[in-house]
Design a protein that fits this description.
Elements lengths: L4 H24 L6 H9 L5 H30 L5 H19 L2 H4 L23 H24 L8
Helix pairs in contact: 1-3, 1-6, 2-3, 4-6
Amino acid sequence: MSADFGVAALAGLGGVVVMTVLMYIMVAFGFRVDIPYLIGTRYVNPDRSGMVYFIGFLLHLMIGILWGFIYTLLMIGMVESPNLMLGFLFGTAHGIFVGVLISTFADRHPHVGQDKAIPDPGMFGNRWGISVPFMIILLHIVYGLTMTYLYNMLYHPELMPAM
């Protein structure tokens, strides 16, 4: 079975861009899901806001590309080519993984916790709001669907439905 990792990188990048745009729409409506800021403050003091977002976005995009590789490797190992059902399932698993991972931030992140720049998110971000756990999983499902759709569109255009 062959895979094109250049296409996987582009599909992962497309998935993380779509996910990030949706995330900032949610932020505009008051949801606390500013993940590039959370990532950026891990490495840069929050007082340097421009640099926080630059580093945060750069790392978030790189992580999205890395997950594109991971999805592609796992899907190619399981089926002929990535498909939307697996994109949905992998996105759900990915969201659950991130939801559990985010609960460890208060212990390891220098700017997350009580009386710090970012309040402790709790498990799945539940301390940031009752809907945040659902948003985390939904955003990662969108990533999985977008990534697999773009991979197939770019690498297997013959599999795409005719318009």
